[in-house]
């Protein structure tokens, strides 16, 4: 004696179940999103730590190389003194002292302190920073220009019967057709 009407839920109970299911789903989505954010923060922190370690390591290596150059300059100064050339020997000694200061700065200073020092220098001497930026930009442009020629030559297929230009860059002369009915001027 069971009919379809007896097996159905009371009115409003389905709405409560749907709302509960939606809330559970939203909670799960928020939990997963929170876990993803935590993992992203952790990965970013690890990447930042690795980057700082690499910068610190490279700065120390550069400092050691610069210090080696300072030792070489001192040796040059000593040799110049042995040859009786005191003027150039003093210049070499001064250069060695300055180079040694740069080497010890690079070896003994962390990346954060270097960044602060560069920022302070830029605030004190903005024109020097501008000139340095322009110089670096010019050097980068020259480097890119020089490397683009070789990349272009590697990328271009060899053309049979066409002589290579002297400077390595092919000259392209555009052909502009004359409009119909226009008089031709010049030779």
Question: How would you describe what is shown here?
Answer:
The protein is mainly alpha-helical. It has two domains: 14-114; 125-155. Helices cover 73% and strands 0% of the residues.
Please, what is the average pLDDT? 77
Largest sheet, if any? none
Instruction: Find the structural class using helix and strand composition.
Output: mainly alpha
Number of helices: 4
- Outline: flat
Radius of gyration: 36 Å
Count of folded domains: 2
Secondary structure: helix percent: over 70%
Order of helices and strands: HHHH
Rounded to the nearest angstrom, the distance between the terminal CA atoms is: 110 Å
| Beta strand % | under 5%
Poorly predicted sequence stretches spanning 5 or more consecutive residues: 1-7
How many strands? 0
Describe this structure in a few short sentences.
By secondary structure, the protein is mainly alpha-helical. The protein has helices at residues 13-82, 86-108, 111-124, 126-155.
Task: Summarize this structure as a short list of keywords or feature phrases.
single chain; 187 residues; mainly alpha; 2 domains; 4 helices; 0% strand; flat; disordered N terminus
SSE topology sketch:
Layout: H1 13-82, H2 86-108, H3 111-124, H4 126-155
Helix pairs in contact: 1-2, 3-4
